[in-house]
Write a structure and sequence with these properties.
Structural class: mainly alpha
Radius of gyration: 23 Å
Domain G-protein coupled receptors family 1 profile: 43-296
Largest sheet: none
GO molecular function, one term: trace-amine receptor activity
Number of strands: 0
CATH architecture: Up-down Bundle
Number of domains: 1
Family: Belongs to the G-protein coupled receptor 1 family.
Strand content: under 5%
Number of helices: 10
CATH class: Mainly Alpha
Protein name: G-protein coupled receptors family 1 profile domain-containing protein
Order of helices and strands: HHHHHHHHHH
Shape: globular
Membrane topology: Multi-pass membrane protein
CATH topology: Rhopdopsin 7-helix transmembrane proteins
CATH superfamily: Rhodopsin 7-helix transmembrane proteins
Length: 326
């Protein structure tokens, strides 16, 4: 075998073999991942700055979007590790291999948890609007977001705890990055992170969709004979329905991008991060992180206004945080 085909030519007998592919294909993949990583980090950083800076966006719903943007921003940074792993060789050591899987697992778990919270937020806003402001407060949402991230970290560390005892135990050759999860842990992860979470999201948004349709019909039937006070209430309902629709697009795109990853787990595949299939599925999940801010840019006027203020450096002026961008 040609030493150039090995991950570690100096360890001829124990080194893994590189993935064989055309140079033009590798160049295209490198460029595509680098571009997607750059766009993902830049756009989500804009979302983070916008929601953090402007006081008008300091509400429960936007704090949930902030949590999702932080997760997507970290996914964008995480893509750089996927770029160096594209040829099938892992050069960063066995411990960092385990941490690679821990970070990816935490980001997936936190994103799923945030999506559940977003669905619950829209459910309460549409189905129980009179008590929404008392039930869903900023402090409660911040506590829920913090618990979501803390539980995600603890949960993933428990899943991969055996791999920390002797990192690299499951590697068959040098340059491989394999993390093995027990059968019970794998089933538990599938049930909690995928089946229960996705079911809850679909049920909540199914209910939101039904109630939203009934509210739209009611508004259309009474639109002619309304008083000014009632008109304000209807405008509030319209804004809530619009927010539910936009976040529904975010939820659907998330489910579309994450489902293939868990479907592979469902059919009994192990978590081998050096396989082309698992790498492709992680790329699909990463693409969702790039897609979310693009959805905001298309449907949210406040995000476009915030970007204009940021790019024109008006954000540096005193009092800019109080700008009315809604």
């Amino acid at each position: 075998m040609d030493p150039s085909e090995l991950c570690f030519p100096e360890a001829f007998n124990s080194s893994c073999k590189k993935k064989v592919s055309l140079h033009s294909v590798n160049t295209l993949i490198y460029f595509g991942l680098f571009f997607m990583s750059l766009v993902t980090t830049a756009l989500n950083l804009l979302v983070i700055i916008s929601i953090s800076h402007f006081r008008k966006l300091h509400s429960p719903t936007y704090f949930l979007l902030l949590s999702l943007a932080v997760s997507d921003f970290l996914v964008g940074l995480f893509m750089f590790f996927q770029i160096i792993f594209i040829n099938g060789c892992w050069f960063l050591g066995d411990l960092l291999c385990v941490l690679y899987y821990v970070v990816s697992g935490v980001l997936i778990s936190a994103s799923v948890g945030t999506m559940v919270l977003i669905s619950l937020d829209r459910y309460l806003a549409i189905c129980d609007p009179l008590r929404y402001s008392t039930k869903v407060t900023t402090k409660r949402v911040q506590i829920c977001i913090s618990l979501c991230w803390i539980c995600s970290v603890v949960y993933i560390l428990i899943l991969v705890r055996d791999n920390f005892q002797q990192p690299g135990t499951f590697n068959s050759c040098s340059g491989e990055c394999v993390v093995e999860i027990g059968f019970i842990e794998n089933i538990t992860d599938l049930i909690l992170t995928f089946i229960i979470s996705i079911t809850v999201i679909m049920v909540l948004y199914g209910r939101v969709f039904v109630v939203a349709l009934s509210q739209v019909q009611a508004m259309r039937s009474n639109i002619i004979a309304i008083k000014q006070k009632q008109s304000k209430k209807i405008n509030v309902k319209k804004s809530e329905l619009k927010a539910a629709g936009i976040l529904g697009v975010v939820v659907v795109s998330f489910i579309f991008c994450i489902c293939p990853y868990f479907c592979v787990t469902l059919i009994g595949k192990s978590s081998l991060l050096n396989t082309s299939t698992m790498t492709l599925l992680l790329y699909l999940f990463s693409f969702n992180s790039c897609l979310n801010p693009l959805i905001y840019a298309l449907f949210y006027p406040w995000f476009r206004k915030a970007m204009k203020i940021i790019f024109t450096f008006q954000v540096l002026r005193s009092g800019s945080s109080g700008a009315n961008i809604l």
